[in-house]
Design goal:
The complex is a heterotrimer of chains A (about 475), B (about 240) and C (about 200). Chain A contains 23 helices and ten strands. Chain A is an alpha/beta fold. In chain A, helix 3 crosses helix 12 and helix 16 packs parallel to helix 18. The two termini of chain B are about 30 Å apart. The chains are: A alpha/beta (about 475), B alpha/beta (about 240), C alpha/beta (about 200). Chains in contact: A-B, A-C. Chains A and B meet through helix 1, helix 2, helix 15, helix 17 and helix 18 of A and helix 1, helix 2, helix 3, helix 4 and helix 8 of B. Strand 9 of chain A pairs antiparallel with strand 9 of chain C.
Chain lengths: ~475, ~240, ~200
Amino acid sequence: MKETQIQDHATLAEAFIQDEERVNWHDGALWFIREKRDLAAKKIPEWENLREVASQIKHNVISNLHDYLVQFEENLTRNGVTVHWAADAAEHNAIVYSILKAKEITQMVKSKSMLTEECHLNEYLAERGISVINSDLGEYIQQIDNEPPSHIVLPCIHKRKEEIGALFHEHLGSEKGLSDPTLLTRVARKHLRNVFMTRRAALTGVNFAVAETGEYVVCTNEGNADMGAHLSEVQIASMGLEKIIPQKKHLSIFLRVLARSATGQPITIYSSHYRKPRPGQEMHLILVDAGRTRQLARPDFRDSLKCIKCGSCMNTCPVYRKSGGLSYHNTISGPIGAILAPNLDMKKHADLPYASTLCGSCSNVCPVKINIHDQLYKWRQVIVKEGYAGYTKALGMKTMAWTLSSPGNFTKAGKAGRWFMQNLPFMINNKFNPWYKQRELPEGPEESFAEWYAQNHEKEEPVYK
Amino acid sequence: MTVGLFVPCYVNQFYPKAAKATLQLLEKLGLEVDYPTQQTCCGQPMANSGFEHLTTDCNENFIRNFAQYDYIVAPSASCVLHVKEHLSSARQPENAALIREKVYELVEFLTDVIEVERLDAVFPHKVGLHQSCHGLRGLHLSQMSELNAPYFSKPEQLLNLVKGLEQVTLDRRDECCGFGGTFCVAEEAVSVKMGKDRVTDHSKNGAEYITSSDLSCLMHLEGILNRQKSNVKVVHIAEILNASL
Amino acid sequence: MNSREKILQAVLKNQPAASVLPDISMFGGNKSEAVQQYLEIFKTIGGTALEVADFAEIKTYLQDNFELTKRTVTTLPELGDMAEMLSQTVDPHTFEDVELAVIQGHLAVAENGAIWLTDEVMGQRIIPYICQHLAVVVSANQVVPTLHEAYAEIGIGNYGFGGFIGGPSKTADIEQALVLGAHGPLSMTVFLLTEMS
């Protein structure tokens, strides 16, 4: 992987925006998906009710998680699946390694799993002589370019087809200058077929885990999870604790909203329900905490665990569309990433809750009704209280609060915009002000409204209680 | 009925015309309007940056100024939403709660409280309506495009009463402009790109004016328009609703 | 204390007060329009769906539209004379060269085009994924309006593996351009068989 980014969202976004043609394309492509999502949602009269019910089911999951996990484990064991528990990324990776090592397996194929990205599993295994190939086309492209996915559903949405053609030319020996998406997909299909045929182990993520039956559901459009799993001797599934749903019938709710929210499709092409190993096959499932129980303890933020990873909040977010997923420097980008990441490392991700205008569109498209923009606001309060906001910012805010909180101070601050020009962070009247870089400042009027009112609108002062 | 006119701090300082129009419009409609002169700020700039704990004095001052009125009306959806969602007071919790109930953004006050059915306004121009996010998704001034729910728009309802006004149809009817408080400087590049794209949507669809119930959005869009030396102008919705030939 | 106990203890300590599960029994669709809706939806997904009266019609269609000289496998005895009855015991890798697989589906969902299949009707789990072209035969009266009716019918079930398949394998990862045939089948044909009804 490329060096872990230490730059903040604003800096990385500014770099992304330099290429305006790319940004316009990126913005348009994601907006188109948002429009497809709208069309799909509006074909279902009961759509808003489905969202509400999905949210309530997930609330029930969060509030009964202990019992559901125990029930799920019991059913998995009964079905012949080996269950593992991992407190953190390190333990998760060690478990995967031990499973592979026991079978002397040195090559594994992996379908999409944000959790294993979060755990940096590929790097960990590579250091121990085990190669992993990501089989989702977008993730595969990101892997050969040594970059993390920029979007949880569309991993390489920030890349142009010509760039992908160049990568395939370099890594797969395809014809130089090839940029037709169908032909490029055929190149990858051929190459990855060979991978599927030769890998003894396959790892998948989990979309939904049914406590009632001990089965887990994996959704893909490409069929890559199934190609890997059904040809493997050892099948491993990694899941965050929050993926549980109580009963089989609840899948009807979640599968109805997932793909429609994600891409506007009525359902993903493949919704695979894995329950028991094939004869002769081993099946393992790893339940991973990695910060989830900590998030569960935060009343203001535990609803983020309802997320079903549809990516609709990214597609609708204007900040995401203009800044690209990699600018969030976190495995999960976009609005949902910005409320999940501070729980993992508040200092490193202190900038993310600020990478939003709080416009609220994310909360409206969320199929499980997570109040994402409210949580962004609340994370800002936490980040300031925990001291991660930066000294200058804190001082500026104190000055502003002092002036704005008292009529005396406010009047003394001057008339017709003078104080604002000197103090409001977005108003400071000098050429170093970021406002002024690409925008004119408002023209200060002759007089403020208060001044005009005092002279022109004779009224008695209101009497305070 | 006495209305307390809440003029947000930056409106007072930079856009007095919008405040004047609000005052005149309410008086034209026969209302008694007071402007409590000791008002300052709702506290939103601090709170949205994560410093809500510094807004205690702002809150107390707001309550001192406005508790006595039947209604509180402001030409700013954003500030009204902040008061509705966050005004609190340890000393006067009842008054804080009452104010949260009776504070209105101008448009919703006109459509929901006064139930205005006719206006004498004339504004013979092509106008693009910018939905401020706080007005749209916070105060529900219009139906949000994300939801599968019947369409309505309170600002459109009022603009339809203005003679000569032609509303332009936008490609993205409720996309954020990118102002976002301190976001506009902390994330300057994204903020400006978002603003530029909004401006383009309006201008390519033929708007001569961009209007909104939020001046913070308009200040940002105006900054971009002026830098581009565009002929498109911004105007607060109060100025349109109060306009005559 | 091992990780299992640590995690479960943390969950128990941190989870909020219990909330009840919502009733979902009000959801569902209209059975009378299901077949027509299925045929339309499946087409928009990029598949081919047709109503057929009997297996003779299916055979004719397959002969006209596929290269049956290439390896064709099936689990349906009715097609035993034109396709290889697939073995449930051989190594799944041996199916790599399958051109066409024709199998039975349990039910079809009108709202999204998906067919429910379990390992029982797949013959081997890999079959509907590894073949170049997939054809599925479903009884026309097994078309349900929505996923709610589908899961009601499936119940708890007793399969080792089951899946909804709703069209040819698909990707749009390269510039959002839709490409059929990512890793799985390049095409999918669904026969809604009225005779089985």
